Amino acid sequence: MNKNRPVNLDISTIKLPAAALVSILHRISGVVLFAVVALLLCMLDASLESEQGFQEVADTFNSVPAKLILWVALAALIYHLIAGVRHLLMDVGIGESLDGGRRGAVTVLVLSVILILLAGVLIW
């Protein structure tokens, strides 16, 4: 083993390929979804308790922080879904090549950005 190899420990200078970025973001979106589901379940429980609870939850969704949380939850769901479909397509043999992986990763990123922006427009 060559011990004289250059070692780059500054992560801000590392250029990740699109497929690596999609993979990392897919994991992050999964963690965000896991965290947001607990919050959304609590809100569902409160809304099903009584008419007053429902009205409080409905009023909460009119605030800017609640809309932001909802948008983040939808963004994570949209991204996780699209990246998951990409993984399923790769499991059946579509886009397994190096070039196909790059094109699939860029497609996931572009489609996700478009749909996340559209979700933001619909929420606001």
Q: Tags for this entry?
A:
124 residues; mainly alpha; 3 helical TM bundles of succinate and fumarate reductases; 4 helices; 77% helix
Question: How would you describe the overall organization of this protein?
Answer:
The protein is mainly alpha-helical and 124 residues long. The chain has a single domain, classed as 3 helical TM bundles of succinate and fumarate reductases (Up-down Bundle), CATH 1.20.1300. It has 4 helices and no strands. The protein has helices spanning 18-49, 51-60, 64-91, 98-123. Helix 1 (18-49) packs parallel to helix 4. The radius of gyration is 20 Å and the shape is elongated. The N and C termini lie far apart (57 Å). The model has no long low-confidence stretch (mean pLDDT 92).
Low-confidence stretches: none
Distance between the termini: 57 Å
Shape: elongated
The CATH superfamily turns out to be Fumarate reductase/succinate dehydrogenase, transmembrane subunit
Short recap of the structure:
The protein has 124 residues and is mainly alpha-helical.
Topology:
Elements lengths: L17 H32 L1 H10 L3 H28 L6 H26 L1
Helix pairs in contact: 1-2, 1-3, 1-4, 3-4
